[in-house]
Amino acid sequence: MPPVLIAPSILAADFSHLQAEIEKVEAAGADWLHLDIMDGHFVDNISFGPAMVAAVRKHSELPLDVHLMIQHPDHYLPSFVEAGANSITVHVEPEAEHDVAKTLDAIRAAGCGVGLTLNPATPFEAIEPFLSALDLLLIMTVHPGFGGQAFRPEMMEKVRRAKQWRDANNPKLHLEVDGGIKPDTAKPSIENGANVLVAGTSIFRAPDYAEAVRALRGGGLE
Ligand code: DX5
Ligand code: ZN
Asked: Does residue 215 contact residue 29 with C-beta atoms inside 8 Å?
C-alpha cells in the first residue's frame, strides 16, 4: 500500500490570505496541494485559473495536483504546465469535449504526472481503457463543482476495483478520492485502497490545521 498522502484543496482556503494559508497547511503536514479549476461550463461553478496556480507555485515547493473541471482541457493544458503544475487530472466524461488518450499523452509529454477522473454517475468501465497510461486515478466522491458536499459511500466500489487493478498491474498508481473527505470518511477510503485524500472544508474550516491533517491520516495509519 503506497503511503497515505494528504492534499488540501485550495478552493476552501481564504484567498485574501493565500500565502499565510499555504504556509499553515505546509506546517500542518500537507503532502500535496490540490487546485480545483472550474470554468462554469463543465461544472456549474467558476473557481480560478492558471494565475492562481502560478501564485500558489510562488509560495510552495509542494507538488501541485491540478484538477481540471473544464471543457477543452487539451486547449488550456500548456498554461497550467507553464504555471507550475506537477500533475494534471482531466475528466473522462464527454462533456469535457476532448480526445482523452491524446490529452493524457500531451500531459505526459509536458513532463507532468498524468491523472484521469470520473464523476459519481460515470461507470468504472469508462476509465478502464486508460488505466495503464496513468500515474493517478481520481475517484470523485461527490459530483464536482462545490466544496462542503456530502461524501458518497457507494463510490468505494470503484475504489476497490481500482485497487485490484493497481495491485495486479501498477503498484505505483495513486488512487485519489475527492469530496466530503473528513476523518470518518477518510478511514473507509483508505481501507478500500485510496492513498491520496483531497480535503477542503475539513482542513481549512478546522481551528487546528495540524490536528485536522493528523485526523485524516488517523486510525493508527500514521
Ligand atoms: C469539488 C472539488 C473538491 C472540493 C473538495 O468539485 O473537486 O476538490 O474542493 O472540498 P470538500 O473537501 O470540502 O468536499
Ligand atoms: Zn478537486
From this structure: no
The Cα–Cα gap between 73 and 92 comes to 11
Q: Which residues contact 24 (CB under 8 A, 6 or more apart)?
A: 209
**Per-residue pLDDT for the chain (222 aa), expressed as one digit of tens each?**
789 999 999 999 999 999 999 999 999 999 999 999 999 999 999 999 999 999 999 999 999 999 999 999 999 999 999 999 999 999 999 999 999 999 999 999 999 999 999 999 999 999 999 999 999 999 999 999 999 999 999 999 999 999 999 999 999 999 999 999 999 999 999 999 999 999 999 999 999 999 999 999 986 444
**Atom number in ligand 1 closest to CA 143:** 6
Residue 18 per-residue DSSP state: H
Q: How far is CA 153 from CA 68, 160, 173, 180, 201, in A?
A: 23, 12, 22, 10, 18
- Regarding the beta carbon of 149 and ligand 1, being less than 6 Å apart is answered yes
**Ligand 1 neighbourhood includes 12 CB (under 6 angstroms):** yes
CA of 194 to the centre of ligand 2 (A): 15
Burial class (CB in 10 A: 0-12, 13-18, 19+), 205: exposed
70 lines ligand 1 (CB under 6 A): no
Alpha carbons 207 and 202: distance in angstroms, whole number: 10
